[in-house]
Amino acid sequence: MKTYVNRAPQDTRGTWATYLGLSIVLLFSAFPVYWMFVISTSTDEAVAASPPALIPGAQFLINAQEVFTLNEVYFAASLINSVLVSTVITAATLFFCSLAGFAFAKLRFKGRNALMVVVILTLTVPNQLGIVALYIVMGKLGWNGTLLAVIAPGLVSAFGVFYMRQFIAHAVPDELVESARIDGALTMRVYWNIVLPAIRPALAVLGLLTFVMAWNDFQWPLIQLNGTDFPTSMVALSDLASGNYVIYRRVLAGAFLATVPLIVLLLIGGRQIVRGIMEGAVKS
Amino acid sequence: MSLTELRPASHRQSPPPAPGKTKHWLYRFDTKTIPYIFISPFFILFAIFGVFPLIFNGIVALRNWRLDDPTLTGWAGLANFERLLSDEDFWNSLGNTFGIFILSTVPQLLAALIIANLLNRRLRGNTFWRIGILLPYLTPVVASTLVFAIFFARDNGLANWFLSLVGFGQETPLDWRAQKWSAWIAIATMVNWKWIGYNALLYLSAMQSIPKDVYEAAAVDGASPWRQLWQITVPMIQPVVVFTVILSTIGGLQLFNEPMMFDENPQSADGGTDHQFQTIAQLIYKVGWKDLDLGYAASMSWALFLIILVVAGINFALTRRIGGDR
To answer: For the region Disordered, what residue ranges are annotated (chain B) (predicted)?
Structure first.
């Protein structure tokens, strides 16, 4: 029988079995995305073959062009809309949440702790359960069927405030804030000149996670934009996949195009996203 | 996430007000009012688009509220809820939601634990592996489900091809969408695929904060890595396990995207020809925006809310006992 020493796992060197296991996991994770790409480059015959094609074909541009020129799908517009919606939501979330997080971490005001508890409580509320009433609210505002209705609920997040508060409490020394104020700096200037530069890493993490969530959101944009000529890319994709005769290579070319921006984000900001999740960043 | 992190800021004295009347006024404004201005965008937006709809939803549920017939209005009392209790579609979707939920949560969290344990080693290319397993988390569900729909296709689907490779080929190829069990498995596979890596990172982060001497002083002398995992590591990360179970419960019971896109006609919200994989969230969408009956849809959301509360409570109680036998 093999004997083992009592050593913490994180001090134990990975064996060949560890790497084998992780490689299988990686293969499992990447395969659907890879196969999405394969089908988006294939011909109808290659997709219908048994077993289906597993190596990329040469048809990507043809398939992509078909997606873009389909009349009722508005795919090009949908990509622009998704960029617009996700960017506005991300920028607003970063600004409003860092502003509130700064106030909660470094400013003194009456009811601060009670209000922070309110923020934490709202973290647990599943927003999706209010969509019927939210739709009625948007109706009263006259926003139903517009991009505004898709953007407005995403402008702030309780998680963002919580995350920013935690980060600012540690990353910005009280002394720095106090001395700036003794020099006569107004609070807004302290936020702009001292806090914002100090929390760049947290802004990157929250920004990436928010962008991904906004980009992938489906149910609410579907309710709002289905049937309009300015859908988000997820709504356009569901349109592309509906109908009596679905052409796989075309649908998957659309799916791949709508996924590429996120793959790029993962390549650029993967480190930050991993760190954000491991620091306890959860879905808002 | 704990409240212990909520420590107050320093209690040092603020600088004295600067001389001059205007200055004084500005100083008061800057210290007394500005903090509220800073937090107000969050609270105002969240009140309008987050909290209010949730409360208002309770009122809509008690009213007749139809999108196609605005004249049909007024209080409905509990009529929507009574209708719910005898609605076969509702009970069917409840069963589907739970079936898919169990098939996705249990394997998902177990696999995440094992993968986290693999990552919790001294590895070459640490960041590479971690980023790699996050690919499914970033991929839009709408897009990935379209791939899985082809994977689980009846004719020439890869899943059926694999089945035939390992000797389970049928005379007529398996139509995954046609039966409850097979459709549930297909959808649960998609959910598992998306969330395993994410949960693994949550577990990994908890595992790395376990003090090393816990392992060195372990009563289980010379334990194999496998026993080490179950007898030391898992009990030590129990709070995070509880957290992920609650998260999966809240998310899993609201499942919408996967069953929507798995349908032959993704925008029908039918959940298959016989509703064999229609979830509650899908039914709410269908009742509200296809049948245009917002009052009834609101009562369904309300019911789903209660179900989530109860199930989350039960799961909380169950998972809190992990490690109780230590």
So the answer is: 1-21
Residue B289 forms part of a structural domain: yes
Q: pLDDT tens, A154-170? A: 999 999 999 999 999 98
Give the single-character DSSP code of B54. Answer: H
Rounded to whole angstroms, the Cα distance separating B138 from A58 reads: 26
Which of B28, B60, B92 is the C-terminal boundary of a domain?
Answer: B60
pLDDT tens for B208-221 read 988 888 887 776 56
Q: Which residues contact A191 (CB under 8 A, 6 or more apart)?
A: A98, A99, A102, B38
User: Helices in B174-325 by DSSP H: which ranges?
Assistant: 180-207, 212-216, 225-228, 234-236, 238-252, 257-262, 280-289, 294-319
User: Other CB atoms closer than 10 Å to residue B290's CB: what's the count?
Assistant: 12
CA B179 to chain centroid, in Å, comes to 25
- For residue B155, the model assigns a pLDDT of 80
Work out the minimum CA distance from A204 to partner chain B, whole angstroms.
16
* Residue numbers of the domain that contains B28: 20-60
State residue A155 phi and psi, 5-degree precision: -65, -30
**Taking a C-beta distance cutoff of 8 angstroms, is the pair B295, B318 a contact?**
no
Report yes or no on B15 lying in a domain.
no
Give the other-Cβ count within 10 Å of B15's Cβ.
Answer: 14
* Residue A29: Cβ within 10 Å count: 22
Distance between CA atoms of A118 and A120, rounded to whole angstroms? 5
The answer, yes or no, to whether residue A128 has pLDDT greater than 90, is no
Contact between residue A152 and residue B49 where contact means Cβ atoms under 8 Å apart: yes
C-alpha to C-alpha distance for B121 and B143, rounded to whole angstroms: 33
What's the CA gap between B255 and B104, in Å, rounded?
11
How many domains does chain B divide into? 2
Q: How far apart are CA B160 and CA B162, in angstroms?
A: 5
Kindly state the average pLDDT of the residues B68-75.
78
Closest-CA distance of chain B to residue A60, Å: 16
- B-chain residue closest to A213, CA distance: B138
Q: Give A 63-122 residues with CB within 8 A of chain B.
A: 96-97, 99-100, 102-109, 112-113, 115-116, 119-120, 122
Calpha distance A233→A240 (Å, rounded): 10
DSSP assignment of B203-242, as one string?
Answer: HHHHHTTS-HHHHHT-SSTT--HHHHIIIIIHHHTHHHHH
Q: How far apart are CA B266 and CA B251, in angstroms?
A: 20
B213 and B95 fall within a common domain: yes
> Token pair of B168, please?
């389970």
**Best of B13, B32, B46, B51 to disrupt the A interface by mutation (most A CBs within 10 Å)?**
B46
pTM: 0.91
- Give the pLDDT band of residue B21 (cuts 50, 70, 90): low
Residue B122 main-chain phi, psi, to 5 deg: -80, 110
Contact indicator for A146, A229 with CB cutoff of 8 Å: no
Closest-CA residue to B102 (of B255, B243, B241, B301) = B255
Please name each of the domains of chain A with its CATH number: 74-232+260-278 (1.10.3720.10)
CA–CA separation, A66 and A62 (whole Å): 6
Nearest residue to B109 (alpha-carbon basis) of B48, B197, B6, B227 = B197
Is the same domain home to B192 and B244? yes
Model confidence band, residue A185 (pLDDT cutoffs 50, 70, 90):
confident
